[in-house]
UniProtKB/TrEMBL annotation:
Provenance organism: Fodinicurvata halophila
Signal peptide (from-to): 1-26
Statement: the UniProt record of this protein carries the keyword Hydrolase: no
Keyword Signal belongs to the record: yes
Keywords: Copper, Metal-binding, Signal
Gene3D superfamilies referenced in this protein's UniProt entry, alphabetically: Cupredoxins - blue copper proteins
Protein name (database record): Cupredoxin domain-containing protein
Region (Disordered): 30-52
């Protein structure tokens, strides 16, 4: 006997996990944007709106982000105003290339389970899923924002990407240049 349980993982959408009917659930759910000890993760941390130094509009179309490259200061808190002007569902997700690769599998599972189609999201089925401070998932015509504080370290490779199946691989990814 199995039941479906949703867990939150850093920088990735929650996935349904099959667990034995005994209710045993592996430890490991983490707060988004922290490394478990309250300090920022390598990709940064959720930002406080009162600390925002500037706002940047990011437009998602069906094959690209506009702009495709962003320059940010180490430790800076930015409000990203995200708009999906495409005809497909798109995601704005801040992370490292490895985080995006891990997240792609979970986005595929959302598609396979019918939580997401190329043009829509099942809001009821998504409740508790894909609820992360570093990411928004938007239907065509929708807008939202992400407030993010970048890490103090500048030796990390950070990107913003769309991990809807096939989008990142087709080039829907942009890069952050971290400056001191």
């Amino acid at each position: 006997m199995f039941k479906t349980i949703y867990m939150r993982f850093p920088a990735v959408a929650a996935l349904p996990l099959a667990v034995a009917a005994t209710g045993a659930l592996a430890n490991g759910a983490h707060d988004q944007g922290t490394n478990g000890d309250g300090h920022g993760a390598p990709h940064g941390a959720p930002g406080e709106p009162s600390q925002v130094s500037r706002s940047i509009e990011v437009v998602m179309d069906d094959t690209y982000f506009e702009p495709e490259r962003l320059e940010v200061q180490a430790g800076e808190t930015i409000r990203f105003e995200i708009r999906n002007k495409g005809t497909l569902v798109h995601e704005f997700n801040i992370g490292t290339p490895e985080m995006h690769a891990d997240h792609a599998d979970e986005m595929m599972a959302m598609m396979e389970e019918g939580v997401m189609t190329p043009q829509s999201l099942d809001e009821q089925a998504m409740e508790g899923m894909h609820d992360h401070a570093n990411s928004v998932l938007l239907e065509p015509g929708e807008s939202d924002e992400v407030v993010w504080t970048f890490p103090e370290e500048t030796d990390v490779t950070l990107e913003f990407g769309c991990n809807v199946p096939g989008h990142y691989a087709s080039g829907m990814v942009g890069e952050f240049e971290l400056k001191h």
